[in-house]
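so i finally got all the pieces together for this one. its four components total, 220 residues if u count the protein bits. some of the lines might not be protein, just check the labels. i wanna see the whole assembly predicted at once instead of chain by chain like last time, that was a mess tbh
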Amino acid sequence: MGATKTEHFTDIQNEIAILAKALGHPARVAIVEYLLSVNTCICGDIVNELPLAQPTVSQHLKELKNAGLIKGTIEGTAICYCIDEEGIQKLQNYFGHITTQLVIKKSTCC
Amino acid sequence: MGATKTEHFTDIQNEIAILAKALGHPARVAIVEYLLSVNTCICGDIVNELPLAQPTVSQHLKELKNAGLIKGTIEGTAICYCIDEEGIQKLQNYFGHITTQLVIKKSTCC
DNA sequence: AATATTAATCGCAATATTGCAATATTAAAA
DNA sequence: TTTTAATATTGCAATATTGCGATTAATATT
């Protein structure tokens, strides 16, 4: 035990969980916000921006990338990271959908 | 090590991380979806709905409650759980905001 | 009062995450 | 080609999460 029983849930539930989990750490939220705030397609400035060591940041970047929230392009020795719009869109759409359901059945609950 | 360095991040980053983390498990996504789909304010039916044992579900409910995504009201021997609109709204607003930023600086990135 | 019913808590094992120092990899620059 | 740079990977310690059986707590019901 200790491992998530993903096989019991729907694809969408698992997908949302993966995306949400990727944002389930303040450092990763900070990375996404930083990428949004920067005009140019910055690279390892992220390490300087965050109060974490380089390997730790690298690890967080990897997780965000695996989840589909950011993309990375090699550019010489540097790597250009930027937001993966698709992942963000999926989350936005999901919460939009959920909020709609909420509005519909408002006040039928405790 | 092993513990998240929350003190280095902003309150909002931490708050979003807590909310996202709560949805970072398919069972908890499933619970939220179930609560949205049910008209009446059900209680322990969640246990029957999910492929998990009662203590495990109870644990997930606790986490969702701590994060502010659901509420629980005691109703006799049963407990009535339902969506906490505030938590959902916060996520929706956050992603709405992020998506807006994305649209603004579209194509300035890789 | 005795008994069911509902849900939380405890305690544990298995596994995952966080964070970093040290090291490896890769490609530009000298 | 050696050096420098930017990142990734490895390996490890500390901690957190997941899941469940057993138990407990609290309230209805009989």
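Residues 41 and 80 of chain A are 6 Å apart (CA to CA).
Residues 1-4, 25, 27, 52-56, 59-60, 63, 74, 76-78 of chain A lie near DNA strand C (CB under 10 Å from a C1').
anyway lmk what u think
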